[in-house]
TrEMBL record:
It catalyses: Hydrolysis of DNA containing ring-opened 7-methylguanine residues, releasing 2,6-diamino-4-hydroxy-5-(N-methyl)formamidopyrimidine. It comes from the Bacteria. It comes from Agromyces intestinalis. The keyword Lipid biosynthesis does not apply. This is Fpg/Nei family DNA glycosylase. Keywords: DNA damage, DNA repair, DNA-binding, Glycosidase, Hydrolase, Lyase, Metal-binding, Multifunctional enzyme, Zinc, Zinc-finger.
Length: 280
């Protein structure tokens, strides 16, 4: 799933490419992508892009008219661009669900690689009209993100740390991969309850959250869109590293079941040697 560092890099690249360009054509390949049926994206044709930004893990294409095209990339969504449809064609395993053509010939393809449609888009007057945007909590990538905002998300919560980190109402932009990385850097068990953390552990978790997210944002900046996913994979310390040596202690990184997916951790560094369960 694309998370805030990669979505920020994608937004920055599209902002540089599209700002000032007029939307010339829209091709909705999969109608289920459009969540505002009374305001289809075709209604934006002829309008100039004013900016491309990000809210959490969602992309925001703002137009000079004041309208916004908000895109949720879902679990397997991404974007491609080129000077023609052939240049922007989806890579192997991905299917183009929505195509945007601009007046200078640039084509942006929004793709999905899952077995079900997770990509979604809305045309709205203000981003907060999209429920997924309206509910977002503070973003650790924001320089204004504060310790007070962090404490409101965690202190006293009888909820597992990994769940809080991925809860978009608490902290915006973090998903499965970066929550694994944050908890490893903080040397905390992903299944420990937030309410059990002492001040020192909270300090470590706050520092890890800010550092992991902001470092990733900085490191992804300027990487071409088609290389961002691989850059994310290459940068991981424990996420996706099952069976590999832990970079902290040399022990084996292990899987555990979390919600509907798999996550990774180091038992020696994070759980005092406890092996977290796998679904049978």
């Amino acid at each position: 799933m694309p998370e805030s560092p990669e979505v920020q890099a994608l937004a920055d690249e599209l902002d540089a490419r599209l700002t000032g360009r007029a939307l010339a054509e829209v091709d909705v390949v999969e109608f289920r992508v459009v969540k505002t049926r009374s305001r289809p994206p075709e209604g934006l044709v002829g309008q100039q892009v004013a900016h491309v930004g990000r809210f959490g893990k969602l992309l925001d294409v703002g137009f000079g008219s004041g309208a916004h095209l908000i895109v949720s990339l879902g679990r397997h969504g991404w974007a491609r661009y080129g000077q023609s449809e052939a240049d922007a064609a989806a890579p192997a395993g991905a299917v183009t669900l929505l195509s945007l053509g601009f007046d200078d010939g640039i084509v942006v393809e929004l793709t999905d690689a899952g077995d079900w449609v997770s990509l979604g888009c809305w045309v709205v007057d203000t981003p907060a009209d999209v429920p997924a945007v309206a509910k977002l909590g503070p973003d650790p990538a924001d320089p204004a993100f504060s310790r007070a905002e962090f404490d409101r998300a965690f202190v006293g919560r009888r909820k597992q740390l990994k769940a809080v980190l991925q809860e978009q109402e608490s902290l915006a932009g973090i998903g499965n991969a970066y929550s694994d990385e944050i908890l490893f850097v903080a040397r905390l068990s992903p299944v420990a309850h937030a309410s059990m953390l002492d001040v020192e552990a909270l300090d470590r978790l706050f520092a890890a959250t800010v550092d992991v997210v902001r470092t990733a944002v900085a490191e992804r900046r300027g990487i071409p869109i088609d290389r961002l996913k691989q850059a994310k994979v290459d940068a991981m310390l424990v996420h996706g590293r099952t069976g590999e040596p832990c970079p902290g202690c040399g022990g084996a990184v292990r899987d555990f079941s979390f919600a509907s997916t798999m996550a990774q951790y180091c038992p020696d560094c994070q759980t005092g040697g406890e092996i977290l369960p796998l679904k049978g």
